[in-house]
């Protein structure tokens, strides 16, 4: 079960859990309703045969995939890239990540400007909607390997906040307003 919680506001090491006191966890359903972030469990030991992943790729048209490893040894310009990932930003397309090894945290902003921290471990596939402000950090183990999926030619460009005038931002806020994310469906 993936864990998600509201973050505290401390400036301690970004790689710590940053729970509030007392901790405030969210269910997957609440996470989806508040942000549109979707979650699927995949068999990390047999990704190529996983039926949930096959169904997702077909139904959503994922035509591109590659892998990224974030570690001091494997990621070129490690410090610069990690700093970039942790800048609050958005993308014009969904960010789809399946964790193969290691772990980390995706943080997403809700409408009330709270940060929600989503812990990801092997087998966790998350879909971060286009236009939502978010960021990523490694945890204290400093290692994650993830599959990146995309529809068509990949575009990884981050647009740092403020990016409120971008169409994808306006469309995301309209979806939240219209309650598009209110129909939570569990994956098989
Ligand atoms: C674990 S994937 C690295 C983070 C990333 O690709 C991204 O775009 C964060 O927003
Ligand atoms: Fe991103």
Structure description:
It is built from four helices and twelve strands. The strands form three sheets. A five-stranded antiparallel sheet has the order 2-1-8-7-10. With 188 residues, the chain is α+β, with helices and mostly antiparallel strands. The chain is globular. It starts with a strand and ends in a 10-residue tail after the last helix. It has helices at residues 28-35, 51-60, 78-85, 167-178, and strands at residues 3-6, 25-26, 38-41, 64-70, 89-90, 95-102, 104-109, 115-120, 124-128, 134-138, 144-150, 159-160. A hairpin with a 5-residue loop joins strand 7 (104-109) and strand 8. The model has no long low-confidence stretch (mean pLDDT 96). It is 20% helix and 31% strand. Fe (ii) ion binds at residues 89, 91, 95, 134, 158. Fe (ii) ion (FE2) binds next to loops.
Please sum up the structure shown.
The chain has 188 residues and is α+β, with helices and mostly antiparallel strands. It contains 4 helices and 12 strands.
């Amino acid at each position: 079960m993936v864990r998600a919680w509201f973050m505290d506001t401390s400036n301690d090491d970004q790689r710590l859990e940053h729970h509030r006191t007392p901790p405030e966890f969210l269910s997957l359903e609440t996470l989806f309703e508040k942000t549109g972030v979707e979650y699927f469990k995949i068999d990390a030991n047999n990704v190529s045969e996983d039926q949930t992943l096959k169904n997702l790729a077909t139904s959503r048209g994922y035509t591109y995939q590659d892998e990224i490893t974030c570690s001091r040894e494997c990621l070129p310009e490690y410090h610069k890239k990690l700093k970039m990932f942790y800048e609050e930003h958005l993308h014009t397309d969904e960010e789809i990540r399946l964790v193969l090894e290691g772990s980390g945290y995706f943080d997403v902003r809700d409408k009330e400007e709270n940060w929600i921290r989503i812990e990801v471990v092997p087998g966790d596939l998350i879909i971060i909607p286009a236009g939502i402000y978010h960021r990523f950090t490694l945890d204290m183990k400093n290692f994650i390997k993830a599959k990146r999926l995309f529809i068509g030619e990949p575009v990884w460009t981050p647009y740092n906040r403020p990016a409120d005038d971008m169409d994808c931002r306006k469309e995301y806020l309209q979806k939240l307003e219209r309650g598009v994310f209110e129909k939570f469906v569990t994956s098989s």
